Amino acid sequence: MYLCSMAGIYVHIPFCKKRCRYCDFYSTAGNNTAIRESYAKAVCWEMELRREFLQDEAIKTMYFGGGTPSQLSAALLGRIVRKAEEVFGFDTLDELTIEANPDDLSQEWIDGLKEAIPQYQLRISMGIQTFDDALLCLLGRRHTAQQAIDAVHRLQDNGITEISIDLMYGLPRVEESNEANKTYLEGWQNDLDKAVSLGVPHISAYHLSYEEGTPLSRMREQGEVREVNEEESLACFKLLRHTLLGAGYRHYEISNFALPGHEARHNSSNWSGIPYLGLGPGAHSFDGMHRTWNHPNLIRYLEVLGSKEFIENFGTISSGETLSDEDRYNEYIMTRLRTAHGISPEEIATRFGNERERHCRLRAQTYLNSHRLSRTADGRWVLTEEGIFVSDAIIADLFC
Q1: Nearby residues of 158 by Cβ (< 8 Å), 6 or more positions away
Q2: CATH no. for residue 75?
Q3: Which of 80, 82, 237, 360 is the most buried (most CB within 10 A)?
Q4: What is the distance between the alpha carbons of residues 194 and 187, in angstroms, rounded to a whole number?
């Protein structure tokens, strides 16, 4: 049920030096070397246990996400990659991505990584979020704007040019006035201009969300910060598209922009329904028909994978489900419509039947008429600029 014979591996690294105020991803703060050594060993054991999950599909991409993967030593990252080579039988990858924080990217860490896995062209995905030091402090980030700029240049000077940076818009407002609104948009334009000036080939831009239970959400509830309104969010989004499209980037997925030929291959595979194996607590996996996930509990994960009975006990730290036809149709709509490739009524009929194709066509007509969806030359339906901003509502309406 996917496009071609290939697959990816995702490794979750649940360590952070400290948690950002907006983050609700599974991670744990602190710097315990012994636990990190044990964790790398446990991930390698999980590979052994789940080597059949991808059914001999060729591994083409590997992605270290988190958490903060750059909090793991270069030696441990290299050990995990070499174990994956051994278990899954690959000797090359189309893409090897490691998420990183700017202040972790020292010359020593970069040298160690190049020495640990010299055979790969590394891709670094760096969380910058903003170049405004005051906002970085408000968000609980542990780097400065200058550290981020220096980290990009350091990577480039060391021959690592496949760099993606994360930016965040819709950041908290702390002042209410017309002048503050003008300054707010000028600040976002400044972030975009600095990002473009760095010459990185990939930029991801996400709207800040206030997740329940996070410190930032509590700050909003207590009136310490104000959430931007829909009009302000739309202005930021239009500025984002105008600036990056004007600089030659292609808006190939709702939150992602790339210079031609530099799209994120691992994530693009996931959006296309290609299988992937997720390793570590909180990681999800997908084989085309089944979705599984590990429970987000580092201590329990280490207990099970560190025991002699880890094969028998692994089921106590993971869960799964078999996707129904309706589930697979909904996932197709949700993932494909996020991309510039869009959805195909003909493909829907072939994969999911004529009844679902008629349902989708009927629902889509409203958005085609309102110009939130448009037809491509080959008959696919894609989101327009107006549609992208309300994409969640459109996707939900096309669901069965």
Answers
A1: 107, 110, 111, 114
A2: 3.80.30.20
A3: 80
A4: 11
> Which of these three, 271, 303, 332, is where a domain ends?
271
Helix (H) / strand (E) element for 240: namely helix 230-246
Q: Are 113 and 158 in contact (CB under 8 A)?
A: no
274-326 residue pLDDT tens: 999 999 999 999 998 999 999 999 999 999 999 988 889 999 999 999 999 99
Whether residue 295 is contained in a domain is answered as no
Which amino acid makes up residue 189?
Q
Amino acid at 19: R
Q: Which domain holds residue 200?
A: 7-271
Tens of pLDDT, residue by residue over 4-51, are 457 999 999 999 887 788 777 677 766 788 999 999 999 999 999 999
Of 245, 271, 297, which residue sits at a domain end? Answer: 271
Does residue 327 sit within a domain? no
pLDDT in tens, 150-190: 999 999 999 999 999 999 999 987 665 445 555 789 999 99
Query: H or E stretch including 343?
Result: none
Q: Please tell me whether the overall predicted TM-score, pTM, comes out greater than 0.90 for this model.
A: yes
Going by their DSSP bridges, the two strands 162-169 and 122-129 should be labelled as: parallel
Q: Is 349 a domain residue? A: yes
Could you tell me if 161 and 259 lie in one domain? yes
Residues 50/56/57/63 CA torsion (nearest 10 deg):
30
CB atoms closer than 10 angstroms to residue 198 = 16
